[in-house]
Structures are given as C-alpha cells and as structure tokens.
Write a structure and sequence with these properties.
Layout lengths: L1 E2 L15 E6 L5 E12 L2 E6 L1 H5 L16 E13 L2 E13 L31 E5 L5 H4 L1 E2 L13 E6 L14 E12 L3 E4 L11 E6 L2 E12 L1 H5 L14 E6 H7 L5 H5 L2
Parallel strand pairs: 3-8
Antiparallel strand pairs: 1-6, 2-3, 2-5, 3-4, 4-7, 5-6, 9-10, 9-12, 10-11, 11-14, 12-13, 13-14
C-alpha cells in the first residue's frame, strides 16, 4: 500500500507517468510497441506520442500509397485502487483501448497545423512528429498524468543531462506493473534541422513517444518527446557502411514539446497569463 500525494505534480512518482502502449490492427492483433505520456489540460486528458507511432509511417519516407493498418492503441498503466483519501494500492496492470479514427475514418488525434502533400487520406506533419489524442479518464489518471505547468518553457543547454523515460523493446523496470526505464543522456545539439535537438546516445525500439525529462533543483519537467535515432555516418559515408564503419555514432533526437504544442495551435495557459 502506498500513500499518494493529493497534489498532482511531476515531482511525485515520475516513474508512473510514462505508458507502455501497443498498436492494434482492425482485428485487435498486436502490431508494435512504443511509449506515450499524458497531460491533464484545462478541457480534458490528452495522450502524447509520435505521429509515426500511430500511423506506422516515417514522415520523411512516405509510401506512394498509404493504407490504414493501426486502428487503435492500448495503454498499459499501473493498477491503481483508492483505499482511503490520499491512500492507494499500486501494483499490477490496467489496460485501456482507444480508437484512432472516428466512425467516418477521420483521425481523432491532433497534430501540427502545417503539413505537406498527402497521399490518399494521410496528412503528413511538416516539422513535428508529435500527436495529441484526447482520451477518457481511468482509475488513478490524475496521479499518472502531467499538468501543463510541468512542461518546460525553457530549452536545455548544451551538455545538460536529460532523461528518456520509456519502454525499450517493451521492457518494464518492475514486476508490479508497467514501469519505464530512465535512460540518461546529454544535449549534443539544439538546432538539428532547425526543430530537433540531438542527444549523445540513442534510445531503442519501443522508446519513440517517450517524454524527455530534465531535473533542475530537484524538480522534474518535460522538455520534449523522443523521436528516434540519427546515424551521422550514413549521411556522409553511405558508400562505406558495412564491416568497416557499421554504426559508430548513434545519436538520438527529440522534439521540444512546448514548441510542438504551439505548432498544433495550443496556447499554453502560462503564456496567456503573461500577455
């Protein structure tokens, strides 16, 4: 039995604030695994992950013909049972399915307003591989979701430590329910392609969509959302990749969450208050 603070804040149990998610086809069969996290906003609960996670398509390598294969996602969270005010039992797993499309076949998620040409019924984000999906409440959600004040309005500095909190290959750090793995990395560049930040080590399959966290003065904040890896040698030495080079310098990248939300047309409440 654990005592849960009555105040929702990222400093309390950040290990409960990343979700292992699985993507399902129209028959409910598992397609792939990834990570997501939630933010409680003024009008409801929103799940955040990467666009390529829910579509199965790299926005930089769009196929000529796109067909929808991922109909829904399943969130795997820790079981949460309220025993008394401020006291809850935490352990085990609860899972919830959420549709990605409405009955007319239109996406239910939100992404950046700017977009490139679309093959068929897919709208390609131009800069930010990030989506926001409104979901229904489930037991303990207020203790598992961040709030807008937990989103950092400041970017990190070169060399500053950050943490990717996700599920590598679907692996959990606990036998008592889904618990993310925290990978410690450092900022390597702040202006890769103008809208992505580089870190000095990549994550792995299953970590796309993870929150990228910083810890300043003992306070956790979300600075971004992990997108994937970059291999610099592939850009300049593709003709020599193989036994000689292999993957010598895997880097990771993430998108600044505050900027990504702005490109979705979301006005942060703190920004509005400062006007």
């Amino acid at each position: 039995m654990s005592r849960i603070p009555t105040i929702q804040h990222a400093n309390f149990y950040p290990e409960m604030k990343s979700f292992y998610i699985t993507r399902l086809d129209k028959d409910g069969l598992l397609i792939s695994r990834a990570t997501a996290f939630g933010i409680k906003e003024s009008d409801g609960y929103y799940l955040y992950t990467c666009w390529h996670v829910i579509t199965g398509v790299d926005p930089r390598q769009i196929p000529p013909i796109y067909s929808i294969t991922r109909k829904s996602i399943r969130i795997h969270a820790r079981e949460y049972t309220e025993r008394a005010p401020g006291v809850a039992a935490i352990g085990g797993e609860q899972a919830h399915d959420f549709d990605l499309y409405d009955p007319h076949g239109a996406p239910k998620w939100q992404q950046e307003i700017n977009h490139d040409n679309e093959p068929g019924n897919i709208v390609i984000p131009k800069l930010y591989d990030v989506v926001r999906l409104r979901i229904k409440s489930f037991p303990g959600i207020d203790h598992m979701f961040y709030i807008e004040e937990d989103i950092s309005m400041d970017m990190a500095s070169i060399g500053e430590d950050v943490y990717i909190a996700g599920f590598p290959f679907g692996f959990s750090g606990s036998n008592y329910g889904p618990a993310p793995i925290f990978l410690k990395r450092s900022i390597a560049s702040l202006s890769y392609e103008g809208h992505r930040a580089l870190i000095d080590g990549a994550g792995v399959i299953g970590m796309s969509g993870s929150p990228v966290l910083i810890r300043r003065d003992s306070k956790w904040s979300i600075i971004g959302i992990y997108g994937g890896d970059v291999y610099p040698e592939h850009k300049y030495y593709s003709d020599r990749i193989g036994e000689q080079f292999g993957s010598k310098l895997p880097l990771g990248y993430f998108f600044n969450l505050y900027a990504a939300r702005s490109f979705m047309g979301i006005k942060d409440r703190r920004w509005s208050k400062n006007l």
